[in-house]
Specification:
alpha/beta; seven-stranded mixed β-sheet; binds pyridoxal-5'-phosphate
Length: 463
Amino acid sequence: MDKNQLYRNIPKVDILLEEETVVAAIAQYGRELVMEAIHTQLNDVRKQIGACQDESEARGLLENLPNSIAECAKRMLEPVMKKVVNATGTVLHTNLGRAPIGKAHMAHITEIATGYSNLEYNLEEGRRGERYSHFEELLCKITGAEAAMAVNNNASAVMLILHALGGGGEVVVSRGELVEIGGKFRIPDVMALSKAKLVEIGTTNKTHFADYENAITDQTKVLLKVHTSNYRIVGFTDSVPMADLVPLGEKYDIPVVEDLGSGVLIDLSKYGITYEPTVQDALRAGADVVSFSGDKLLGGPQAGIIVGKKKYIDMMKKNQLTRALRIDKFTAAALEVVLMEYLSEERAIQHIPALRMITMQEQELKEKAEMLKEKLLQMEPLAQVEIEPCESQIGGGSLPLEKIGSFAVTLQSGKMSTAELEEKLRKLSVPIIGRVQNDKICFDVRTVQDDDMVYFEQLKGLL
Ligand SMILES: *Cc1c(COP(=O)(O)O)cnc(C)c1O
């Protein structure tokens, strides 16, 4: 074939600009974007002709140019960050955005964020207010703390606490609690950044009361406990409970701080989940300051919540780091509406999506699995679709050993491998992320929200 002839046949920009499809694209997406798309597509088509071995295929590429330009312009306006269906069964999936926000809560947040709000304005007195004021009282009421605030996430909360209370001095931590959380958050490294000196005590499996007391010097500024959220040390172990550390802190006038990680506010053991120490437990035991995430078991927006004695919270509110780590209006609005649900445990379980999924009982899961199976069979009558028991996980580094019984709808194609199918599902316009187990795709229905069901219609003709 004559490649030079083909190159000569590539239309000029002004010719392309007269094509009907391109004119329509300009009307829809704007001239600047379409011009960029034209240049990208012309470059691509030159390269493709260079690599092409088949003349009719090359002609096809040229003929299709107006369409590829319109497609390309359209793609430029499609956000790269998109909704996915979480069918992994991991409720607080960090890679998939941890806790989802409820639609009703989001409606309120939208109203706040799309206009102006009293974020830092005291409407009673007509003067400057505090961004924490919207949820501080709620947090105090729910947890029993004297004061509260919130920053960007729990990693920053820990950093702020260590900087404000421990900076320039020593912070005592048990070797059994020197955790690394996903995303390389390591207690020793955060400590170094906060200008506090880490004093490690005890051993990996055992730390005793005397280890804490022996470590106290006139430089000691904080006794820190860290919840081992994402791992467990089992067997011959010992650690010192908060209640025992508190009198020690009082004796030497040193604040006792706990990084709780998950920040569960209700006792989930009633719903068959292993008991996880609550924020209220830590405060009741006498902790001076407690920090936890907003988007783990609390089920709210990403945030690092700090509660405790007013004297210490005030020190943190005044710290310069707070300005750098402060939450925005979205988070402040979300925290208030989500925390409000906790005024009644029943409401929290019903209205906070993560809690609702975690506590969903067998019968409901089974019904959901039946519904999904029906749907899949409607879409692909020839596919192998089965309902099987499976195990969901909490995720987000919370309750790492917990497996909650659930149901999965499993899918096999017969025409393509499970790996190929997994990739196809991942590349749908609303991707469906499942698990691969025993060479089948498993959709754990626990994390498939009711509104997500419709996206399984994308499977029509896929298999
Ligand atoms: C998850 C976790 C963190 C980090 O919290 P983010 O909100 O993800 O920043 C810190 N400490 C502990 C113990 C955790 O479990």
